[in-house]
Amino acid sequence: MLGFLLIIVTTVSIIGYAELDYVKNQAYAQNFQRMDSYAQSLGEMAKTEDKNGTTILSGTFLNQLQFVLKRDNVQFRIFDQNNEQIYPKTPEDIKLSPKVFNTLKNGQEIQIRNNNLENSIGQTKSAYTGVLVPWMSEEKLIGVIWIGSTVKNVERPIAMARRNLTNALIITLFVGLILSLVLSYYSTNKIKRLSKATEKVAKGDFDVQIEHKNQDEIDQLATNFNRMVRELKKSNDEIKAQEKRRDQFMADAAHEMRTPLTTINGILEGLQYDAIPEESKPKSIALMSRETKRLIRLINENLDYEKIRNNQINLIKTNFDASKVLKDIQTQLSQNAAKVNDQIILETLEPLPIYADRDRFTQIIVNLVQNAIQFTRDGKIVISGKRLENATELSVRDNGIGMNDEQKKYIFERFFKADPSRARLGTGESGLGLSIVSSLVKQHGGKIKVESKENKGSIFTVIIYDKGYEQFVD
After folding, report:
1. Is 209 within the bounds of a domain?
2. Cα three-residue angle 452-466-325, rounded to 5 degrees
3. DSSP code string of 357-372
4. Taking phi first (over 0 means left), then psi (-120 to 50 degrees means alpha), and beta for anything else, what does residue 415 get?
5. Residue 304: what pLDDT?
């Protein structure tokens, strides 16, 4: 409110001061013009002579003129060419200062705003403002007239303007105070709504939205606030989803670890107390070995993901033929696929140049194929590769259970499982395989995307760029 009021008062004061100064200058300019007109007329009369060769400006005429002009608070004095005052006659010898007189002799007119403040013609009882005008005849000074009006008379319109401006200022203060109160109430009411909404958000309520008409900066702030709350709500929902998946992972990990540990412990106790028949010991030891490897794999996947996420691995990128790696993967994983009646098909060019870390590239494709095997029954898994401009594109396509849009949104996040109910023993049950793939692709400066429909299957596409064309994202 004080800010609005201060702006209004400052603006009115500046305008008022400028207007007052303009009125003052105009009043003095008009007075100088009027006095100069009188002086020039009298000068013309001073140069005119009657039939007897006497100037028209006789003492009687000047006395009569002074009587007439006195009613307008106008007085005048006349000096001859020798700087002696010839009208009105006084006992004293009154002269203009040499400096002033020399200026007048050069034909220059002098304007006097206040004779009591300026040392030009001396002081008088009442302050006068007027002009000193030289009368010249053929470039010779024949006389000087000082004619002026009282300052009080000239400044009367100035005083009137000052009163009007004072009244205007008072009215403006009153109106400005009312407007400031209205505007302040209007603005502070919006700010209070923002403040209350902020308190709700601070308490965890992310469903707050402020209604506004988008008319001013505060409404714009409300728009940004609403957008911020929506983003916070989205982030909060994602955090809750992450927490839920993490809890699920911990439960799954505990379950997965409990089973092999129980098996291993049971076999060890059987061996310790010689409760296992001699012919069953090789099978028991083999089972214990498989369960131990399963635990190691689960732990390694977590450690591997942390290293990749924190950029603690060094990629040794070279140019090699990706088709050979894809053939090896097809051979390596065909047995796992056959267990669930899946078939791995390879469709690629030979050779298929690629610039990548060979071991990490193998890990990317293996994880994608194992993920396809995990969610496909009695189907086909197609590995394909082709060259693009300055890049190599690889895809793993299956006709498994697929995913909905919500699942696709989180598929590359840690601990996420598209269908936990169908996770079974083997690589991939930890929910880290696709997170590792996404991180490795990004560290290669490449891209990964997924297309999927429920009960139609999924297509994972990876693009690895050639040297110098990588697209790293912060």
Report:
1. no
2. 65
3. EHHHHHHHHHHHHHHH
4. left
5. 66
Are residues 239 and 127 both part of a single domain?
Answer: no
Tell me the C-alpha distance between 112 and 110, whole Å: 7
Domain boundary among 289, 306, 323: 306
Domain for residue 473, yes or no?
A: no
Alpha helices in 124-155 (DSSP H): 151-154
Based on the fold, state whether residues 285 and 330 are members of the same structural domain. no
Q: Determine the pLDDT at residue 353.
A: 95
Which residues constitute the domain of residue 436?
314-465
Looking at residue 219, its amino acid is: D
Burial track 257-280 (b if 16+ CB lie within 10 A, e otherwise): eeebeebbeebeeeeeeeebeeee
- Closest to 46 in 3D by CA, of 76, 6, 7, 3: 76
Cis bond before residue 351 (omega within 30° of 0):
yes
pLDDT, one tens digit per residue, over 164-198 is 888 887 887 788 778 777 777 777 777 888 888 88
Lowest mean pLDDT across 107-111, 128-132, 238-242: 238-242
Question: How confident is the model over 66-97, as pLDDT tens digits?
Answer: 888 888 889 898 988 888 888 888 877 788 88
Q: What is the pLDDT of residues 254-269, one digit of tens each?
A: 766 776 788 888 889 8
Q: Which residues pair with 148 in a beta bridge?
A: 75, 130
Residue 421: predicted pLDDT: 46
Residues in the chain: 474
**Angle of the 433-443 helix axis to the 281-309 helix axis, nearest 10:** 40
Cα–Cα separations (whole angstroms), residue 111 to 29, 305, 347, 382: 10, 94, 106, 105
Same domain? 318 vs 302:
no
Instruction: Give the per-residue pLDDT at 214.
Output: 74
CA 16, 21, 25, 28 dihedral sign is: positive
Query: What is the number of structural domains in the chain?
Result: 3
- Quote the distance between the C-alpha of residue 103 and its chain's center: 65
